[in-house]
Write a structure and sequence with these properties.
Layout: H1 7-18, H2 20-33, H3 41-46, E1 53-59, E2 62-71, E3 79-86, E4 89-96, E5 117-119, E6 124-128, E7 135-136, E8 141-147, E9 150-155, E10 160-165, E11 171-173, E12 178-184
Antiparallel strand pairs: 1-2, 2-3, 3-4, 5-12, 6-8, 6-11, 7-10, 8-9, 10-12
Helix pairs in contact: 1-2
Length: 186
């Protein structure tokens, strides 16, 4: 069969066929970190040195001057603030430190296929207005959410009894986080 396409496409296809595992790893790294071929080998393998200026050629004739100034302490989520200079301008970069074991609790997400689950419509601070065991009717406010100095009501999607409160009150949530579960009546 005749190979069609450019030499770059043919090379990529041959790499996937002949070297499937290394090619998959290469593509994963490229998807995660972008095109690292512009980095100097020493910078890529060993990282940046404090106070040293590193030159990254983005494209022919276009260079970026990068320096590492300071690395801050990790916060409770395992994130560090790394102070860098880019073309002489001081810039903070937030980096996850994978050497620190951090237990970050993931919020439970609402399942839209289950009618009694009440989700946060957008990110904000939610205050619950019901307790477990309360009877609620469809359209009745069960919580309120405040974001950017605006407040909105969150209503029950069904008639029923509040079976479980998932969050504390008040609590910061993201869109789609499960707030409470209403057991439908009937």
């Amino acid at each position: 069969e005749k190979l069609a396409g450019s030499s770059v496409e043919r090379r990529a296809t041959l790499n996937r066929l002949l070297f499937p595992a290394p090619t998959k790893e290469f593509e994963r790294v490229r998807d995660t970190f972008g095109d690292v071929s512009v980095l100097d080998t020493v910078d890529y393998l060993y990282g940046l040195e404090h106070g040293a200026e590193h030159v990254v050629e983005i494209e022919r004739g276009v260079q970026l001057f990068v320096g590492l100034e300071a690395i801050g302490e990790a916060d409770e989520k395992g994130m560090r603030t790394v102070m860098t200079t880019l073309n002489g301008q001081l810039r903070p970069v937030f980096v996850r430190d994978r050497s620190i074991s951090v237990e970050v609790r993931q919020a439970e997400k609402a399942d839209t296929s289950k009618p009694g689950q009440v989700a946060a419509p957008f990110a904000g601070v939610v205050t619950l207005k019901t307790a477990e065991g309360d009877r609620v009717s469809a359209g009745q406010p069960v919580a309120s959410i405040e974001a950017m100095k605006m407040e909105a009501a969150i209503t029950s999607p069904v008639d029923g009894v509040v079976e479980r409160l998932v969050i504390g009150s008040p609590q910061q949530v993201d869109a789609g986080d499960l707030l409470l579960v209403v057991r439908p009546a009937g």
